[in-house]
Amino acid sequence: MDKRFSRTATLYTILFLGMLVFAVVAFFYGMNIGTNRVEAKYAHLNEEKVDKTNYVYQQQELASFYLTVYSPYREFQLDWSEALHNISNKKVSNVSSLYKELEGQASKKAIEAASYNLQNAGQLGEAQQNYIRSLNQFEKVAATLQKKSSSITYEQIIELLKSNESYQTAVSQALKGQDIYFETMNLWAISIDPNIPTDFDENVSQKISTWSKYPLVIKNEIIANYLAEQNDFVEFLPHDLTSAIDQFITSGQAEAMNLTTIDGIITLLLNTSAVRPGDYNLNKNKLYSQEFLPQIPFFYPNVE
Predict the structure, then answer these.
(1) Do 160 and 239 share a domain, yes or no?
(2) Which residues cross the membrane (predicted)?
(3) How many domains does the chain have?
(4) 245 lies in which domain range?
(5) Which is nearest to 182 in space by CA: 135, 138, 265, 240?
(6) Are 292 and 217 in contact (CB under 8 A)?
């Protein structure tokens, strides 16, 4: 009796271990297939890249980046923000279903952003990779939220996002891509207009008097860099904040409030929610009619 039991137990143990080994092998095999599929999907972006040093940017490259990379990402970002807004106002009956849609959209937009190879266009290739990584991470975040209760609250979502590594990566990658994109616009402008300074103060702690001497392309680069450093995931664009700063200065409000540095103005504007998407369009004709800018839709009202 004991011998039979021992043999049976041994047999079950062997079978169990065999199944366990098979499961582990299957898991890693599946993971490898998934990794290979992702790598294959973006393989054309891993071709040999040109040297980024002293690369001369063309306006067509900046426009192509906007249309093929930036626009798909921007559409997703606005939909993501709108979803959160609707959830906060209790306009969504099934949160899980909403995030299932966003998961699919993030995947679709990542493919769109990878459809045109910009890896030989200086730093634009790096920015393209940043935006694709961001969308891939947003896809993961949406998948996580999709698995939560359909009645999950806005407050619970915000708390989850604060500690979600994929979300933090998605935000930082998008802001890095944006920072690089605005830097390339400045480099493009410098290559055409010799009057644009190549050496400037990139810190927002600078005096208003220093800031006011810079052309718009430099101001925008400073703000894009600031947003990336702060990891501020906001709906407005760098030039929206730039125009809000310039409007605050030219209207005399900075002087009236004894504000002498740009970071002081930024803090006040952000703390009072005084910056909104489209602010640049409102101030463009008054503040920037003579500015030298690339022909990119978001610099021109009623285009984007």
Answers:
(1) no
(2) 12-31
(3) 3
(4) 193-299
(5) 240
(6) yes
